[in-house]
Write the structure tokens for this entry.
Amino acid sequence: MARHHHAKPAGVPTWTDLMTTDTEKARTFYHAVFGWEYHVAGPEFGGYINAHINEHMVAGITGPMPGAPPMPAAWTIYFASHDIDADVAKAEKLGAKVMAPAMTVGDLGKMAILIDPTGAVFGLWQAGTFTGAMVTEEHGAMNWVELTSTDAKAANAFYVGLLGTTSAAMPGGLEYYTLSHGEHQRAGIMQADPAWGIKQSFWANYFHTDDAAATAALAVKNGATMRGPIDDTPFGQLGALVDPVGANFKIIQPPKHS
């Protein structure tokens, strides 16, 4: 478990939220699976829903932006920025497209939504009074973020340039890169196998769970579908799911250290 009381370093995943066409169904589902409780913001913040565990903010849920074209339900990963205007400009130079330009969200901070050169949506967050997820690596909270990309090499080059990370290719048959700040690994980029039928690159959360099999079963019971079996890996037990409204997410039960 990790607690976060200050703004995270630039380039580090700091927040995640779900854009969904059915916020009530999403609230019911994630409460059943992870035990999330909710605070609903006022109309000045569009009724944005903050999910929390023991009063610690862990994620957000929101409906589509007014006037936006129809989009499938999806989780968005936000990377910390200390100068969002400069980072948006840098992202554009590196080949990204701006989906929602930098905007001020009251005294909470500034946000922007972009599309990377391989088609994956991601966000930037410059903290004001809101510094992002207050707890990670706890049951129901973020543990790891991962991009499944149709062009992992291009994605890797883009995020290294934008986020100021170092990158390392994992050994083995799967093309996979880890992005690190110093000694700390922060995110992964995985090449999509054509056999998976994935046509659109996407970021996904790995939510921490104390029992991957039980969490997966509970998710399925409440309307999710599994994208394959639970995998037993050196990094823990991993599972990929789709929530009842169609958003991809993942779970991880880290290995126990003796």
Remarks:
- The chain has two domains: 2-127, 139-253.
- DSSP finds four helices and 19 strands in the chain.
- The chain has a mean pLDDT of 91.
- The first helix runs from residue 23 to 34.
